[in-house]
Fold:
Amino acid sequence: MRFEPRRAPLRGGRHCIIRKITREDAADQLRLERAIVRARQGIVKHEDELPADAAAYAAQRDRAGLTATDGSALCVGAEVEGVGLAGEATLLRLRPRMVRHVGILGLGVHPEAQGLGVGRALLERLLEWARAHRDADGGRVRRVELYVRADNARAIALYRS
Structure:
């Protein structure tokens, strides 16, 4: 299933473009993750745990399976005017056949874009893809799991809504 870019409304009359992330976005992804980690709100990483550069970041994502093109993973980003890559969401399906119907969700929004609706736009688009996507053998995502820190009130509110 193709993933077409789509415009999504945000608060304050703004909008974002939700699009598939590619390997060429590694530098922007690393900048985004650094900004999120530096904000120290609801995140489990420290800055010294991040890759040193875009090439190392891309290689790390390759090893994690996040750049797979076989339907086992999808990574989407939200581009916001004036911010650039303002958020990213990933869905990584488990590999063993017995649990291949499970997808692990990851979501991060740039601190300057939090509260605009970027996280909601990413989540809705990613879940829409998960509901519609079918593997060549008919398999699909039936359950989405996520991990969130108990002190990340914004994320918890989004996931509960």
Remarks:
- Strands lie at 6-9, 15-20, 73-80, 84-93, 102-109, 143-146.
- The mean pLDDT is 89.
- The CA atoms of residues 34 and 48 lie 10 Å apart.
